[in-house]
UniProtKB/TrEMBL annotation, chain A:
Subcellular location: Cytoplasm, Cytosol; Nucleus
GO CC, alphabetical: cytosol; nucleus
CDD domains recorded: HPT
Domain HPt as annotated: residue spans: 38-143
Phosphohistidine modification, residue list: 79
Protein name: Histidine-containing phosphotransfer protein
UniProtKB/TrEMBL annotation, chain B:
Keyword annotations from UniProtKB, A to Z: Cytokinin signaling pathway, Nucleus, Phosphoprotein, Transcription, Transcription regulation, Two-component regulatory system
Protein name (record): Response regulatory domain-containing protein
Biased composition (Polar residues): 178-194
UniProt cross-references to Gene3D superfamilies, sorted A to Z: 3.40.50.2300
Domain (Response regulatory) ranges: 34-161
Protein's cellular compartments: Nucleus
Organism whose genome encodes this protein: Brassica carinata (Ethiopian mustard)
Principal location listed in the UniProt entry: nucleus
PANTHER family on file: RESPONSE REGULATORY DOMAIN-CONTAINING PROTEIN (PTHR43874:SF111), TWO-COMPONENT RESPONSE REGULATOR (PTHR43874)
Protein family: Belongs to the ARR family. Type-A subfamily.
Amino acid sequence: MELAQMQKSLQDYTKSLFLEGVLDSQFLQLQQLQDESNPDFVSQVVTLFFQDSDRILNDLSLSLDQQVVDFKKVDPHVHQLKGSSSSIGAQRVKNACVVFRSFCEQQNVEACHRCLQQVKQEYYLVKNRLETLFKLEQQIVASGGMIPAMELGF
Amino acid sequence: MASDGGVSCLRRPEMLNIGIGGMESQPLDLDEVHVLAVDDSLVDRIVIERLLRITSCKVTAVDSGWRALEFLGIDNEKASAKLDRLKVDLIITDYCMPGMTGYELLKKIKESSSFRQVPVVIMSSENVMTRIDRCLEEGAEDFLLKPVKLADVKRLRNYLTGDVRLSNGNKRKLPEDSVSSVHASPPLTLSTDSFPPLSPVEIFSSPLSSAMDDEDDDDVLTSSPESSSSPEDSPVRRQKMRSPGLD
C-alpha cells in the first residue's frame, strides 16, 4: 500500500475512534507528549495501561466470584481502572467504571457482575482498536513515513 | 496499587529511571525546578512525569505518601543532613491513595518546618467541593482535576517561575502559546455527542468554581461548557466540562 494511503487510513481510523467515543481528547493530550525524544510514549503508556488493566480485571473477577463479595476490595479496583482509563482517554471504559462504582456503592452483586462484563467489553474493544492503531503507525514508520498530525476539524 | 512495588523512589533528586526510554540520571541543577510527584497509579505517574519533564522540570516520582515523606526526610529526624542536596520546588500528589491520602500527606508536609513552604498541589479524579475546600484550607496551593493536561502543568510551571499566581490574587492572562505537537492541532472542533468540542478556552483557561457539592456522587460534573470563563479567573477549582456520558 502506498505511504500516503496508509497515512490516510490511519487518520480515518483514529478519527473513527473519536467519533465512536472510544477515545476522548485525553488521548490527544498523550499524543502531544510524544516527540522525537520520546517517539513511543503513547504506545508505552498504553501498554502499561493494558498490563495494569489485565491485572485489575482479573482481581475483579476473583473478588466478585467470592461467596461473600467484599465491596471494600472491589471498589478500589474499579476506582483505579476508572482513573487509568481516564488518563489515557479510554472514554467508554471510564464511563463503564463510573456505572460500576455506583452499583458497588449499592452493594448490588448481580448488577456488579453485569458491570464487570460491560467494562471488560469496552476494555477489549479499546485494546483491540489501539493495537490496530499502533500497527498502522508501525507500518507507516517501517515504510519510512511520518505519522501524520491529527487534523480534527470535522 | 502500583505494579512496580514503588521501586521508583530515589533518595536524591535525580531523574527517575522508570523503564521508559529516555530517562536517565542527571546531576543536581539548582536552577532547575524540581518536582516531587506522588501517585499510586503507575499509568498516572508516567503521564505526570512526562508532563512535568516536557515543561522542563526535574521530576522524582513516588508511589505513596510514605515514600514521599521518606524521600523528603520528614519521616525521620535526620533531615537536616540531607537538606543541602534536597531541593524540592513543588509537590504534586494524588488525593486518593491507599495508606496515606494526599490530604494526609499535605498535612504532614505543612507540619514540617523544612518543607511547609513548598507548594503542594492536589490532583483528584473527583470534583468534590468539600474535598477541594479541605485541601485548600490545609494549605494546598491548587487542586487539579484528573486527567491532568499539559495546560494544567504549564500553568503550574509558570506559577513556579513567578509569572502567574495560582490562588486569588493578581493573575495575568496566560500566553496563548499553542501546545506544540506533532500529532494534534488545536483547536479541536468535533461536533458529536460523544466527543464534546474542545475550544481553546478549555485548553488554556483557568478552571471554574461552580462544581456541585455532593460528596456522595462520584465524578460530579456539569454538562454545560462555560466557555465564557476568563483565563484570568482564579484557577482554584477545576471544573471539568466534558463527557455528558454515563456519569
